[in-house]
Amino acid sequence: MQPSISEASAYGRARLSESSSPDVDVQVLLCYVLECSPVKLMTAPEAELTAAQWQRFAELIERREQGEPVAHLTGSRGFWSLDLAVDASTLIPRPDTELLVSLALSKLEPGMWAADLGTGSGAIVLSLAAEKPDVHFVATDLQQAAVRLAQNNARQHQIENVQFLQGAWLSGFRPQAFDLIVSNPPYIEAHDPHLTQGDVRFEPRSALVSGADGLMDIRQIVTQASRHLKPGGWLLVEHGYDQSQRVQQLFHEAGFDAITAHQDFGAQDRAVMGQLSV
Ligand code: GLN
Questions:
Q1: Ligand 1, closest atom to CA 200?
Q2: How far is 106 from 101, CA to CA, in rounded Å?
């Protein structure tokens, strides 16, 4: 006899007691193996797994116990309205980054040109493009593997108003090309101890770390954006929980006005938005 759903859940939760989110981890992995919705786990707890399902589940729990991110085990992560393919070539989309999506949506209007810098899996730009089919989007990433992953995600969701390009931030674009620029760049300090804990151990350092103070990339983005935005255009960047003041200062020095700070779901400062002076 194979274990039931509730027995498999209990087994998984016990094995993952060190994880920061054992209940969610087990739910996501069980649904993945059983190809079912979370509702089924609750409504049919006595249903038995097949031998193959149990073996697969036990293997995934074992890998999760070793620290592998759930999104790498299932190969996908939900973000905004989309289910996105993810792999080890990019950052795993975080719920907190949905803040940038909602801020950008408040500024985008039909016919505008917008850029997403360091697009990774394409999470930000594809969420925006799905909501705004009449805006032209460009998304860049330095890593060719990320560009390919994001292009596949666009194809998967039949999103056609995004052009993906390999490149460093805004290099190669003409001056005043954009009405809005959004980015979730690397912003962690090189020696931050968090880099040795949790999911970030399995993500590319190039997507996480940005020099000794974590602001090397944001500095470049703010400077370049001031040249490549049209007057009156908007810049939105995600940043670390203790970087808001310094990021606002960078915006100010580069000629942005109407600078505002925004908090994530955990009430931490997480994004700054500003408008290039007219
Ligand atoms: N928010 C991520 C983390 O702290 C980092 C994302 C980033 O550097 N852009 O794990």
A1: 10
A2: 9
